[in-house]
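Quick one:
INPUT:
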């Protein structure tokens, strides 16, 4: 009797699991793009989405210099932004299936404009390590006499009134 009861409970449990909807998990498949035109253009990239939702609503927020701007839609344009700004970019994506919200995705990134690649890049993706030194076998460091800014980019000349790094030391020229 115990075996029959156990078998019935196991079968009931398997049937209940089979009836549950598969998890949605689209947030990992959504990214956004930017372009280097005047102002700041941004758009949602849903090519990696595994489901086919009924609709998607997107709400954008871009903040710079203490001011924030909002827009909605798959694409947004912020003419107030310049390439010298550091941006905080937010989006909230509402994914609907059968008229019901099945998932909400939110992201917040900090972006800066890279003059070398002429594109917006993630602030946390900028190298912070400093190249240009060799550690000898005896543990003594030999520096290459180059100068760097605080983001690890090599400088051609010493900046006036800004902190720079030379031979492993933070310096400032008045």
């Amino acid at each position: 009797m115990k075996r029959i009861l156990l078998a019935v409970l196991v079968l009931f449990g398997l049937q209940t699991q089979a009836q549950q909807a598969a998890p949605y998990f689209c947030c990992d498949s959504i990214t956004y793009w930017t372009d280097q035109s005047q102002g700041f253009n941004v758009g949602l990239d849903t090519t990696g989405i595994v489901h086919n939702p009924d609709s998607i609503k997107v709400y954008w927020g871009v903040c710079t210099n203490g001011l924030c701007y909002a827009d909605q839609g798959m694409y947004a344009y912020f003419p107030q932004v310049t390439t010298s700004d550091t941006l905080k970019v937010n989006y909230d994506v509402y994914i609907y299936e059968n008229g019901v919200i099945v998932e909400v995705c939110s992201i917040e990134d900090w972006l800066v404009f890279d003059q070398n690649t002429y594109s917006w890049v993630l602030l946390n993706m900028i190298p912070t390590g400093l190249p240009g030194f060799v550690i000898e076998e005896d543990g003594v460091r030999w520096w290459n006499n180059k100068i760097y800014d605080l983001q690890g980019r090599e400088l051609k000349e010493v900046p006036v009134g800004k902190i720079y790094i030379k031979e492993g030391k933070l310096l400032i020229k008045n």
